[in-house]
Amino acid sequence: MDETSIMGLTGLLHCQLIEGQKGVEEQLDSLEEFNKATGMSKDLLYLCALSGQKRGKSSDEILQYLDKIVDLQNQTMKHLALGIEYYIKLEPELILNVTKLYLQYSPNEPLNLGQPLPLPLKQAKDILQPLVNACPVQKEPLYLMAKVKYLSGDIQAAISLLQKCLDINPSFSDGHLLMAQISIHYGNYQTASKSLEVALSHDFQIREQIQYILTKASVLKTEKKYDEAIKLLNSALVNSKKRGSNLATNNKISLILQMVDIYTLNDQTTEGSKLLTELLEDCRETADEGRIMIANAQLAEARGDIDAALTLLRD
């Protein structure tokens, strides 16, 4: 099978994967095995990562594919001067897709400015930066870099980039959603609520995004609409299972921890404890275990069991 045939087959499998056709995963496995000796293309690596996510593979397996794409991209671009060939080999669509996948495995909450970046966030920044430099007025790269800056703790840089996006396209719903998240970070819940309304007015489907759901739940929580917030978060978990889609681990954890927090505020610590116990079993001996243990300690404190809270923190 020559390079042209592989490119055509990769493109076909990408379409079939998006459409959810049966048997695509097996064809990708065969194509991956066939190309291991000669080296997999960036497009094939991306499809393997996407397929792995749909099949519920571990984050480590998926990130290995993405990291190989970054290495290949760096090798391709490092000796190229800015010009026609540079722009051709930049492959903007692939870079945007890879960045979006990396962000699904990055923290949902911003770090403190100057704090070391988790590898997925660092890789997202590294592969995206050349595209932002080459296309400084393109909405999508600016938006994704704003998201990277926000999660990195550089909030002011995120706001500046985001404002450029909204100047280019005032009806850009994802931009308004990110602005709502930034408002939540600063404790401006009324402003966040208005940004959510604007985002929803331009794109009704945005209400299905996990970040919209988490942000909306935060607003409802401050308004003490606990039952409504719990219903919203629980629906997101249930709907993801019905659709057969696998939530990225950090999204699932964020949804559940938000539910636990709201249960605690609503004096429903039993329900919160049950959720945390199940989550801890799923995430035992992973990087997320500590985050869940802290939430468990906070729940024990809310129940008035200070000794249990201290024991959990010591462990």
UniProtKB/TrEMBL annotation:
GO terms for cellular component: cilium; intraciliary transport particle A. Signal peptide: none annotated. Coiled coil: none annotated. It holds the Pfam family ARM_TT21. One of its GO terms (biological process) is protein localization to cilium. InterPro entries: ARM_TT21_2nd, TPR-like_helical_dom_sf, TTC21A/TTC21B. Gene3D superfamilies: Tetratricopeptide repeat domain (1.25.40.10). Residues 1-186 form the Tetratricopeptide repeat protein 21A/21B second ARM domain. PANTHER family: STI2 PROTEIN-RELATED, TETRATRICOPEPTIDE REPEAT PROTEIN 21 HOMOLOG. This is Tetratricopeptide repeat protein 21A/21B second ARM domain-containing protein. It comes from Medioppia subpectinata.
